[in-house]
Amino acid sequence: MSEDTATLTKTPRVNLRTPAVMAAVQAQVESHYRSEVVEKLRAAGGTLLKGDVKVKLAKQFGFCYGVERAIDLAYAAAKVFTDRRLFILGEIIHNPEVNEQIRALGIKNLIGQNAEARVDDLTGSDVVIVPAFGTDVTTLARIKEIGSNIVDTTCGDVMSVWKRVRQNAQDDMTSIIHGKASHEETKATASRAMSNGKGHYLVVLTLEDTDYVCEYIRHGGNKQEFLDKFRGAYSSGFDPDTHLRRVGVANQTTMMRGETEEVQRRIMAAIRDRDGGGGGEKAGQNYRFFDTICGATQERQDALRVMLDEPMDLLIVVGGYNSSNTSHLAEMGEQKLPTYFIRNASRLESKDRITHYDLHQKKEVTTDNWLPRRPVTIGITAGASCPNNLIEDAILRLYALHGIDKAQLLA
Question: pTM (2 decimals)?
Answer without folding.
Answer: 0.89
